[in-house]
Amino acid sequence: MRKFLFLFSFAMMVFAFSTAINAHALTFDQLPATQKSDQWTVEIDKVKNSHPDDMKPKKGVYQTYGLTIQNTKNDASDVKVELFRDEENTTTKYGIVKTDRETISKNDEYPFHFANFPLSEKANELEVVITWKEQGSDRNYQERFTFPQK
Predict the structure, then answer these.
(1) Can you tell me whether residue 102 is helix, strand or coil?
(2) CA distance 147 to 122
(3) CA geometry: angle at 115 spanning 103 and 56, to 5°?
């Protein structure tokens, strides 16, 4: 009987310990989480102004967030925004959202805004990729903002 209790206790400790080690979700210690460059300000926050038809978080699977991108420098045209997350045991990143907008002006009254996007709880990193042209130019520019696991 002692041997059984010992083995049972040992098995439970191993299970609890391994579960605690493998539990890692992309969470933000403080929201909003903001990153800035010379051209852009990227802010991740809680979902605001939720609509009844919006995607709701699914515990253990994904959380939902809002994202705002503000132009802080030169007027930009042909703006494309893509969100990627990582996946366990691979270097491949998975696209979450891809959208574009014809122009975003400096201090635009209506910044780029994703009201509600899902992010897997298994993700360790969210990458925001912004590609654009400066108004009147054919040259493409790109910036990446990486929000790591906290």
Answers:
(1) strand
(2) 14
(3) 155
β-strands 112-120, 93-104 pairing: unpaired
Query: Residue 95 corresponds to which tokens in the numbers above?
Result: 């696209």
Contact present, 113 and 71 (Cβ < 8 Å)? no
Cβ-proximal residues to 7 (8 Å cutoff; 6+ apart), any chain: none
Run of H or E including 15: helix 2-22
The verdict on pTM exceeding 0.85 is: no
CA 16/CA 41 separation, integer angstroms:
41
Least confident residue range of 7-16, 77-86, 110-119, 135-144: 7-16
Lowest mean pLDDT among 3-12, 100-109, 118-127, 133-142: 3-12
